[in-house]
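To: structure desk
From: M.T.
Subject: fold request, one chain
Message: Could you run this one when you get a chance? Sequence is below, nothing fancy, just the single chain.
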Amino acid sequence: MGERAWSECSWNTAYSNRDAPRHTRIHQPAGPRETKQVPPQPPVPANQVSTSSAPSHQPPGRRRPRPAHLLTTTMAAAMSVSAVVPPAAAVALARTLLCVPATARAPREMAAEVAAAAALGADLAELRLDRLAGFAPSRDLPALLAKPRTLPALVTYRPTWEGGEYEGEDEPRFEALQLAMELGAEYVDIELKVADKFIKFMSGKKPETCKLIVSSHNYENTPSAEELGKLLAQIQATGADIVKIATTATEIVDVSRMFQILVHCQEKQVPIIGLVMNDRGFISRVLCPKFGGYLTFGSLEKGKESAPAQPTVADLINVYNIRQIGPDTKVFGIIGKPVGHSKSPILHNEAFRSVGLNAVYVPFLVDDLAKFLHTYSSPDFAGFSCTIPHKEDAVRCCDEVDPIARDIGAVNTIIRKPNGNLVGYNTDYVGAISAIEDGIRATQSTRSTTSPLAGRLFVVIGAGGAGKALAYGAKEKGARVVIANRTFARAQELGNLIGGPALTLAELENYHPEEGMILANTTAIGMHPNTNDTPLSKQALKSYAVVFDAVYTPKETRLLREAAECGATVVSGLEMFIRQAEGQFEHFTGMPAPDSLMRDIVLTKT
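Reply: Done. Structure tokens follow.
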């Protein structure tokens, strides 16, 4: 089967058949699984997904491994457009488990990590034996696996050649894993490279209560869909109870191939852990419940990750509401590069939850906007916030653009209509300009009938998407706009569009034709982690009466701090962030934004 057959399967149409009834299976790690009839739901229903009861310490009843030849001979048919959509009475969905890796160096500390994971709401803990210093299996495993335990155990003893820390021979490692099984470990992980050797070593002594995970880790890239299909069949051929495939994203579209694999395995009722590592693969860790992943990993806290870009279990539960993510969950998110600093997921997910919307908002680290939008073209990927550096490209990528956004030349909000068309809007200009106006009115006497920007010299630093929005908005309010940019050609281009002069940043240092000017920084200068940077010297700031900074991480930038010291009225980027986000929320949902809630979230949780 070629790459074309997989790419044309439109994995993104999975779960789009909402008119057909489905069976949803609630995951219970012990005993038989309960099957529950779920009635048809509207495209964006209220959040009704069951969290189910707390799991017991026993893994699911053993599923007979599906023969490898069955996977390989049916793969092409299974990945066709019609086959990806779950049939009316076929696929049963299991709740995705949350697993916390315990990575401490001492057994007592590792046991404490397991207890902490249980307190945070994890379903199981991965005991990373290769992380233990001076590990002695006969001494340490009975203590780690003593019953009663706070969580089921997944035991991993990862060698260096598969990304772990164990440097010894295979046999002592096999002996430790077998002892873990005998002591009641619910899951044991073994690498594909030595899986046959390990199974032969066990000589049929694996307890029925223990599930064998056969894993493959690729720390360089994500193979083609065809190669992933072959790898899946190869792991199945070992007799694995659960398949684990972890790859690395070189671009965010790589994750789509893992989603294809998850959907296929769900149809074939093959339990699979399918994750994509690093920041570009982050969405695989949050969205795997939507596509049927067996489990996802969340670290106990920042700094204790067992793989690149692993979220904390607290964020998975509290920020992304992962317990409620299911096949009908709508996906929204922020497209940018960088994007890890964004507080938008915290804000929008809490706002979605407050109105009962079955939706999740995630960060998309995107290199190529057009390629991303083409790949994630399912109606379930329903809307996006757009930030640096994609706001101008978004105008060209949308099928329809709101007239104001087209005049500005930048889009910060994209909505996917039911017919698949992408519509672009700009909520930046209203959010920023209204924030600046209100900041001025609160501190300076103005005539209430006109904008406090009217007639004033308004200097915009930056000629990108946000710069265009601020320049457009200020001009609409009657301000005399000046554009300053590191690259003069870009400043001149925007200056010509809005009918104002252009300067370089170097020239701006000595630009003070009048007192009482307004300054608006729309660049990323001063953004975390480069918090000591500033676009303009403190000396130059003395000519400005009002200074606005679109950067909101940190909440007080160096620019704002020094402007305040010079006596200027300062307006934080947080205010713009709140107001533009409220506009986006209304585009995403068709509902009024919960203003007081969103303000409270930004001020207390970001």
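Reply (cont.): The longest strand covers residues 211-217. Let me know if you need anything else for the meeting.
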